Amino acid sequence: MFLVAAATDNEIKSLPQFPAVVDRLEVLVTGMGPVTTAASLSSYLTLHSSRVEGVVNIGVAGAYVNSGLSLLDICLAQQEFWGDFGICLQDGIQDFDPGLHKNDTPLLFNNNLFIRVENILQAHNIAFNIAKFVTVNCSSGTAVRGEFLREKFAAGCENMEGAAVAMVCRNFNIPCVELRCVSNMVIDRDTAKWQLAEAIEKICMVAGVVLPELIQGGSVPHGCC
After folding, report:
1. Using an 8 Å Cβ cutoff, are 139 and 187 in contact?
2. Are 224 and 111 in contact (CB under 8 A)?
């Protein structure tokens, strides 16, 4: 069985129904932010991990200016970073690591599930970008902060749940993959320039192509992230 994890009901409202594989797919709305996501996904997997072959994390993202990404681009996560876990100083954020995330264990999506999703997207001629993602507690509302995070992590976009999903899946030894659509550019906050509804429609459309093929393609070997 595959689990689709999304932060809000809104982000899966346009997800197609899959009657042919309904018994092999479940959806979990985790809630927004890394803490809520980690708690809800951990609770779910504590009860059901033996049935879960892989976790597909879908949603929207804010893309950094100068990252090469544009509005409504589909992005497949190559790696997740904790973006603002530390000490906030005048000229940036000083990383603070209590042992939750060591440099020798990065949150990389180097698993068979990632490869399969990549192959499915290519087979259907769906344009996508492989990018490094940043998970933040506070979404960036200024161009300055966005540029700081882009430079620091060589990242393409940010979200508020991805690293939490990846870390929980790693702890349960369940492969996961993260697929998002760019709903906004990280500039000085101006929601009039967002395309949130369009991004949700697009990520659900793409997920509607990917999920049935994942499910019908057989089991995924368990492994990190």
Report:
1. no
2. yes
Whether the pTM exceeds 0.85: the reply is yes
Write out pLDDT tens, residues 2-55: 999 999 999 998 888 776 566 889 999 999 999 999 999 999 999 999 999 999
Indicate the helix (H) or strand (E) that contains 36.
helix 34-48
| 189: its two tokens | 């906050």
Cβ neighbors of 84 (< 8 A, separation 6 or more) are 93, 136, 137, 138, 149
CB-based contacts of 83: which residues, under 8 Å, 6+ apart? Answer: 93, 134, 135, 136, 149, 152, 153, 158
Give Cα separations from 38 to 93, 148, 163, 181 (angstroms): 23, 26, 9, 22
The domains of the chain, with CATH numbers, are 2-216 (3.40.50.1580)
Q: Which two tokens stand for residue 151?
A: 């430079």
Contact in structure between 176 and 109 (CB atoms under 8 Å)? yes
